[in-house]
Amino acid sequence: MSFLKVENLRASYGNIQALKGIDLEVEKGEIVAIVGANGAGKTTLLTCISGLMGYTGTITYDGQVLGGKITADKIVKMGVVQVPEGRQIFSELSVLENLKMGAYSRPKGEDPRPDIERVFKLFPRLEERMHQKGGSLSGGEQQMLAMGRAMMARPRLLLLDEPSMGLAPVVVADIFRNIRELNEEGITIVLIEQNAKLALKTANRAYVIENGEITLSGPADELARNEQIRKAYLGG
Question: What Pfam families does its record include (predicted)?
Answer without folding.
Answer: ABC_tran
